[in-house]
Amino acid sequence: MSSIELSAGKPILLSIVEIGGYPDFKLLYESFGYQVVKTETVRKAVKLIRKHKPAVIVAEFNFQSDFRDRTSSLETLLSSTQGVTDSCMIVFYEREFEPQYQRFLQNFDVDASLTFPVDETKLRAALQHISQKAG
């Protein structure tokens, strides 16, 4: 969905799918009243966050051992958009990278953390919690 197609009034949920391999949850997101904007790169996501100031961001924590000062591109995303929006954050991550993800959580606030494979019931509960918090 391009920014031209976005309608006024509905909150935006930005879905950042860098690697994927899980179901497209667009219909679930829309059932909570969100307009879904999807991107595959952090670079595009930074621009979209600045432009649309999404209510919710759903992203993957993909541990990258080759980064010297960061654990993932998610850190880059959140560092570069701090102060731009106060979006709620849902993060999907691999259980095997729990220690690195916990280090990430020491520096960044996340509203919900879900391990792969993503359980749709748990994602629905996280969205419900965010909706109640916002409303």
Describe this structure in words.
The protein contains five helices and five strands; from the N terminus they run E-H-E-H-E-H-E-H-E-H. The protein is globular and about 40 Å long. With 135 residues, it is α/β, with parallel strands linked by helices. The chain has a single domain (3-134), classed as Response regulator (Rossmann fold), CATH 3.40.50.2300. The chain has helices at residues 26-31, 42-52, 73-81, 98-105, 120-134, and strands spanning 12-16, 35-39, 56-61, 88-93, 112-115. Strands 2-1-3-4-5 form a five-stranded parallel beta sheet, sandwiched between helices. Helix 2 runs parallel beside helix 3 (73-81).
Q: Helix amount, in percent?
A: 25-40%
Basic shape: globular
**Domain count:** 1
The H-level CATH homologous superfamily, spelled out, is Response regulator
Q: pLDDT under 50 segments (min length 5)?
A: none
Structural class: alpha/beta
- The H/E string reads EHEHEHEHEH
The radius of gyration is 14 Å
CATH class: Alpha Beta
CATH topology call: Rossmann fold
Our measurement of the CA-to-CA distance between the termini, rounded to an integer number of angstroms, reads 26 Å
